[in-house]
Amino acid sequence: MIRTAALVALLLTSVCVPADAQTNPLGGPHKVRNYLPHMTRPEVEDLLTRSDMVIIPVGALEQHGTHLPMGTDYLNGEERAKLIAQRTDVLVAPILLPGLSAYHMEFAGTVTLPSTLIQEVYVEAAKSLIRHGFKRFLILNAHGGNDATTTFIVDRINQETAGIAVKLNDVVGPFMDRTASRTLPREKPMLDRHSGTGETAESLYLIPELVDLKGVRAATLTLPPHLEAMLPAVVAGDPTATAVFLAEGLKDSATGKGTSAAEMSSTGVWGVVDPAEASLERGRIATEAFVDAAVAFIARWNELRPPGTGR
């Protein structure tokens, strides 16, 4: 009897944490509404009574110069999805951190996966969510290298499962408010892509604690001569020049094109504009425009196909 009482006392001591006891010294995450990793099962079940819609952000784990974190694409995409889910009933379900980043592999820390494997993971994840009652999927691509892969993911969900999928980046266009961006100073057209001012600005707004502008170093770019000659037309917005330029630019060194990130940029930044020129305000405007458009699209989709309709 004494042993039993002692055991009970020990168990009570182990599960009853005093109010002033120290918890995770790193602080731990704060709970975010409709964000699957933070939700209890009853909360998921409750959401299913109001919505059958899921946002799946698709990102990457790759070098972003000397000033942005390796997880920039994943983290920014996830944060945008979370912001959307605070304004409308939609589940945010992050599935996979790495993406297709073979052309960054010469820079330490990059993790890349084959397109076929990425597709399988996301399609299987969608099947799991469909089994629980979710029906509609918004695939939010946060990394340019995943563009073709996410197109296939959407098509496979539509062709192979009971789910219905759209590529969120494509469908928000008609709902975008372009007026806010016109308040920003116009910049001279220049090459400013991977880890440039646009991506840095959004990171300053979405993940400010992870941006190190003091770590910015000017990039020295070395493009193959024919791409160098094509660059003015690309910067000017020529769609044909842009299409053929990107068909060769930023490709795995194993292809022999000489256009991997390390082959073209000394720092991994693909642009001639100093990323330190990025502004938080530009990031806020771009993010809010996307979130507003996504919320408007979701509202319209719910009008056209209310949750729970169809088979």
Strand content: 5-15%
Residue runs with pLDDT of under 50 for 5 or more positions: none
Radius of gyration over alpha carbons? 23 Å
What is the spatial order of strands in the main beta sheet? Answer: 2-1-3-4
Shape, per Cα inertia axes:
globular
Percent helix among the residues?
Answer: 40-55%
Averaged pLDDT:
91
Distance between the termini: 60 Å
Question: Structural class of the secondary elements?
Answer: mainly alpha
Largest sheet: 4 strands, parallel
Please give a quick description of this structure:
The protein has 311 residues and is mainly alpha-helical. The chain is built from eleven helices and four strands, in the order ααβαβαβαβαααααα.
Element layout with pairings:
Layout: H1 2-15, H2 41-48, E1 53-58, H3 72-85, E2 91-92, H4 115-132, E3 136-141, H5 147-160, E4 164-167, H6 168-171, H7 197-206, H8 225-235, H9 239-248, H10 261-264, H11 280-304
Parallel strand pairs: 1-2, 1-3, 3-4
Helix pairs in contact: 3-7, 3-11, 4-5, 7-11, 8-9
Explain the overall architecture.
The protein has 311 residues and is mainly alpha-helical. The protein has a domain at 32-182 and 287-304: Rossmann fold (3-Layer(aba) Sandwich), CATH 3.40.50.10310. The protein has 11 helices and 4 strands, in the order H-H-E-H-E-H-E-H-E-H-H-H-H-H-H. Strands 2-1-3-4 form a 4-stranded parallel sheet. Strand 1, helix 3 (72-85) and strand 2 (91-92) form a beta-alpha-beta unit. The mean pLDDT is 91.
